[in-house]
Amino acid sequence: MRIYTRTGDAGQTGVIGGxxxxxxxxxxxxxxxxxxNCFVGQAMGFLDAEKFSDLLADLLDIQNELFxxxxxxxxxxxxxxxxxxxxxxxxxxEAWIDKYDAETPDIKKFILPGGSQASSALHVCRTICRRxxxxxxxxxxxxPINEEVRRYLNRLSDLFFTVARLANxxxxxxxVEYARSADVFRRK
Length: 188
Description:
Largest sheet: 2 strands, antiparallel
């Protein structure tokens, strides 16, 4: 199989249901999700297989779900096939957030990205996830999307914040607090 097709040489790419310009907001949205997926893979490389076997399994599931997100975002019309991203996937993210958050200490101040290498990489995932969510919001203003993708990305960025903190805890490294922050958080 040849990797190159030459079909995009004129600045267009194929999506499910047609062709669009490579700088189309739809391509920007699913391209950012693809970028996020790459950084998730990189972050996984920084996680010790023994200490983080549970998280590594969950992140592998997330990588597959990010492909589902991209596939749904590449779909021009929902009539062409059913959406892949479902509400249950958001529910699962919330369950993981609760599970991993229970292992982290209470926070009172804003947290800076840092601590361990794994934590820093997971914070990068968080920020790219937020950018992907912004691209999806922009796309949804003018074109139909699977609304569950937007919800999924919103919750996923919360998970990345939580597991970035978890990475520090399990590595025996403290979170880096924003030095000029007042106490702003309280657990309920």
